[in-house]
Amino acid sequence: MASKIRASHILVKTEQEANVALYDITHGKDFAEVAKAISLCPSKKQGGDLGWFGRGMMVKPFEDAAFSLEKEGLSKPVQTQFGWHIIKVTDIQ
User: Fold this and answer.
1) Which phi and psi angles does 80 have, rounded to 5°?
2) What is the pLDDT of residue 69?
3) Which stretches does DSSP call E strand in the chain?
4) What is the pLDDT of residues 48-87, one digit of tens each?
5) Tag placement on the chain: N or C end, fewer CB within 10 Å?
């Protein structure tokens, strides 16, 4: 089981916006470019990159989704108190 992961995310207000972002990425758009264009999180400047984190460092729904993914895996829309996220795991330790 992974102890730390590196992940990027896109944060939007609605599930519909998250689904559109996911569709765009799965149909060839670059994750980082979509993050820079639409994400509400300051991490958008880095293409959504959140860096490395372990369990207990993110809100539970986000953490559960992120740690369930394989390297280069992409989540379905995940709702937290901040909005809707699309998560991409870029590395695992």
Assistant:
1) -130, 180
2) 97
3) 4-12, 49-54, 78-80, 83-92
4) 999 999 999 999 999 999 999 999 999 999 999 999 999 9
5) N
CATH fold for domain 4-92? Chitinase A; domain 3 (3.10.50)
AA letter at 46: Q
Distance CA 69, CA 32 (A): 18
Report the interhelical angle of 31-38 vs 15-26 (nearest 10°): 150
- The C-alpha atoms of residue 82 and residue 93 are separated, in whole angstroms, by 27
Q: What is the C-alpha to C-alpha distance for residues 84 and 77, in angstroms, rounded to an integer?
A: 6
Encode 39-74: b = buried (16+ Cβ within 10 Å), e = exposed: bebebbeebbbbeebeeeebeeebbebbbebeeebe
DSSP reduced 3-state for 34: helix
pLDDT of residue 2: 75
